[in-house]
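Design review, sub-item: ligand-bound model
Attendees: FS, YL, KQ
YL presented the inputs for the magnesium ion complex:
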Amino acid sequence: MEQVEEIIEKFVKDAQEPKVTELFNTQAKGKRVRAKLALIIANKEKASRKLAAIIETIHFASLLHDDVIDEADTRRGKASVNAIEGSKVAVMVGDIFYSKAFYELVSLGEEVAQIVSDAVFKLSRGEMQDVYLGNDFNQNPQLYEEMIYLKTASLIEATCEAAAVLAGKERVKYALYGKNLGLAFQIIDDVLDITQPSEVLGKPAFHDFKEGKTTLPYIYLFEALDSEKKEYLQSLFKKDLSLKEKEWIKSNMQSTGALEKTLQKAHKLANEASALVATEDDLLKIIDKVINRNF
Ligand code: FPP
Ligand code: MG
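KQ shared the predicted structure:
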């Protein structure tokens, strides 16, 4: 992983812009789940480290843009780039990293370049769907799942598939492992927004619903409520919630089993991912970390 960090730092240095380096250094590095996956799946290949650095750089760029779109002030417990330097700079820094990653990607060969660039095409479409789904209270779990596949799971799927190509392993199997893991990852993220405090999350808690994101626990809660309570839940959509309103949502998610049903969905996806890599301890460990985490 140290070598991956060195490659990422080289990408930053190549930009030859002190401001870019300065802003990059203000940000936390994150869990590096994608990089770990690339290194595990294509471990013996030297190119795996470059792939890992490219994927993490794309992920970083997408988060810079996402924080502009979401008007987020914090990211991974630190002030976001848009909060520090404004949205224009955050978009430009995102573009710098995004294009650098694509330049470097070409050197990994056409097959890998197609897999990764197609995932970025998907994640941009996923972000667009996320924004438009946020216009109204979404009651449709299929729309949610399609959106989180595009927004989050596609890049994780591509990481695993591309690493498998580099290592000459079965690409379909690792792609599916990555897809299931990615879906579970985002569902757990959406649960943590409700169950964890801001200090643990490194970003505001209970924020998705206010942002217009009717995540899976909300969809399941809505399904389970009677018509009077359905109306009440809808009246809270996009509102700055009081402590009492948050407590109402949380306790109803517990009593109706909506939270449990959401967790079961994540566990089902995790089990499907596990079954594909049953003999690969390191990949099983990643699933465990994604499922059993607090932030
Ligand atoms: C975080 O989701 C956002 C993503 C996983 C994808 C964002 C993608 C783009 C902005 C498209 C542009 C892409 C590039 C490469 C320039 P979230 O808002 O649910 O999570 P959060 O709570 O961590 O912000
Ligand atoms: Mg966001």
